[in-house]
Amino acid sequence: MKPKTDASPSTTLPADSWLEVVREKVSRLQFGSVQVTVHDGRVTQVESIERTRFPQPGRSQG
After folding, report:
1. Which of 7, 8, 36, 50 shows its CA 20 to 30 Å from the CA of 60?
2. Is residue 45 part of a domain?
3. Type and span of the H or E element at 18
4. How many domains does the chain have?
5. What pLDDT band is residue 58 in, cutting at 50, 70 and 90?
6. pLDDT of 1 above 80
7. Closest by alpha carbon to 47, among 27, 33, 28?
């Protein structure tokens, strides 16, 4: 599964705007992960991977 990346290097954002991006990505996920990439002490990239889980046959869902 390919990660969803939001890259817009020409856009200048406030230094702490990455936190709002992380919050948004986490709130949209049911199963998955959010990865934060840091270079020289600065957040440079945020990626999210969404997974779809299927119930296993013969197992109860409780």
Report:
1. 50
2. yes
3. helix 17-28
4. 1
5. confident
6. no
7. 33
